[in-house]
Amino acid sequence: MEGKNLNLSIDGYVYCFPSVANYFGGDIVSGLLYTGIYKKEELSAFIDIGTNGELVIGNKDFLVAASGAAGPALEGGISKFGMRA
């Protein structure tokens, strides 16, 4: 590629969102910020299903979150008393 001017620059932004807890990651945090349910009057639910399943229910007055293993990578990984075969 000698003699060619290759302009490979790409303009854009990269956002990194931190995890809140072990199974409550940056993907659900970014989703909450994007949807803005923490500012709304009405009750809303936000669900993210991946390797972990996360659920947030709430509004501007409160947010309640729950999470658990949802994909094959962690199946049974957090079971305390066994699981069905």
Automatic annotation (TrEMBL):
<dbReference type="InterPro" id="IPR042259">
    <property type="entry name" value="Raco-like_middle_sf"/>
</dbReference>
<dbReference type="InterPro" id="IPR052911">
    <property type="entry name" value="Corrinoid_activation_enz"/>
</dbReference>
<dbReference type="InterPro" id="IPR041414">
    <property type="entry name" value="Raco-like_middle"/>
</dbReference>
<protein>
    <submittedName>
        <fullName>DUF4445 domain-containing protein</fullName>
    </submittedName>
</protein>
<dbReference type="Pfam" id="PF14574">
    <property type="entry name" value="RACo_C_ter"/>
</dbReference>
<feature type="domain" description="RACo-like middle region">
    <location>
        <begin position="5"/>
        <end position="40"/>
    </location>
</feature>
<dbReference type="InterPro" id="IPR027980">
    <property type="entry name" value="RACo_C"/>
</dbReference>
<dbReference type="Pfam" id="PF17651">
    <property type="entry name" value="Raco_middle"/>
</dbReference>
<feature type="domain" description="RACo C-terminal">
    <location>
        <begin position="42"/>
        <end position="85"/>
    </location>
</feature>
